[in-house]
Structure formats: C-alpha cells, structure tokens
Amino acid sequence: MRFLTIFSAIAVLAGSVQAATKVMPLGDSITGSPGCWRATLYNRLWNNGYTNIDMVGTLPAQGCGVTYDGDNEGHGGYLATNIASQSLLPGWLSATNPNIVIMHLGTNDVWNNIAPATILSAFSTLVDQMRANNPSMKILVAKILPMNPSGCSECAQRVINFNAAIPAWATGKTTSQSPITVVDQWTGFSTATDTTDGVHPIDSGNQKISDKWYPALVAAL
Q1: Which pTM value belongs to this model?
Q2: How much of the chain is in helix, strand and coil states, percent to nearest 5?
Q3: φ, ψ (nearest 5 deg) of residue 204
Q4: pLDDT confidence bin for 62, thresholds 50/70/90
Q5: Domains of the chain by residue range
Q6: What CATH number belongs to 20-220?
Q7: Which of 27, 57, 94, 206 could hold 72 in an S-S bridge, CB 3.0 to 4.6 Å?
C-alpha cells in the first residue's frame, strides 16, 4: 500500500509538470540569416522567468555570439507566396508541432512586386496549414520592416501598402481558438540606421525587433 501511495504521488507530480511551449519563428533571411533578434528575444524571456519555452524549427541557430535556443524556420530568400504554393509549411510543422508561430514574412514578395492581396491569400493558406497541425495555434504576424534597398525605389511604398492591408486580413481570419495578433514591426524602425543595406537589420534593428515581439509573445505564452 505504501509503495502504491508513493507511486501515485510521483504520477501526480509528473502530471503537474507542463510541457514546454513550442514557439516557431517563421520567415525569410530577416528571421534566419542570422536573425539575431531571436537570441535577444529568447534571452530576455529566459531572464524574466519564461524558461519553459522551446524555440522550434528545422533550421539551426547561426551564431550571434551568445548562447540561446536558435531553432527556427527563417529561410533566406523565400517568398510567402512560394511557401504556400509549394506546400512547404506542413512538413516543417509536422517536424516540430509548435504551439505559437511568430511570422515575419512578405519582404521578398513585396520586393518582387507581388500584390498585397496575393500575399495575404498566401498568408491565409499558411494559417490554414498551421491550424490543421494545431487547431489552437496562436499566431503572431508582423507588419513587416520598412525597406529601402538599392535598385528598388518603389519598395518603401509597397511595404506601406502591404502593411496597411494586414490588420483587416487578420481580423477576418482570427478565431477565438486560434487568435491572430498583428505586431507592428514597421513603426520606429529606420532603414538608414537599423540596417546594413536598407533591408537586413544590424544590432540596433535586432533590438527593436525583439522589443516589438516580446510583449505579444509573453501575452501568448
């Protein structure tokens, strides 16, 4: 009887230990090459007591000079429209089974002058695939960073036009079981002082990106 009681107590204790919340950073080179805002974000979470998290993805960390959980789905050069049309996301999801996705996608689509409605249709496909993997998926979607690359004088306005369409799309696509939160990564970010080339962030930009993700991700945890 005593051994049964001890076993029961161990079982109850084991049941009370929650599995880590899996967070998938999904995007292009801004997220993954090397995407050092993820290191800043992860370590801020850890230092503030959010230690029961697991950053997931089929891609490993790419340095950044600090220790952090760097798994991600930041695929350099990828377009949201191609990820959707080629059905790449379901395989990434089944390999990692995230609870939360933080998505900064659309930069390469905008660069290629793809219409906002077309990009957002791809976003809808991706959200449907996330929910097929996990009906309770929490999804954080960025208004993407401003762009001012050489050779694309129209990119800055294209980003503004795309970002302006995101909130209404998110409102129409969100559900109580699988909410979509829009995170404004555009406001306060400078292509002149926060990037190397008008697109990819340097340390100051990475800090700003992390600071924008942090409260939204904490709310989702």
Answers
A1: 0.90
A2: 45, 15, 40
A3: -65, -40
A4: confident
A5: 20-220
A6: 3.40.50.1110
A7: 57
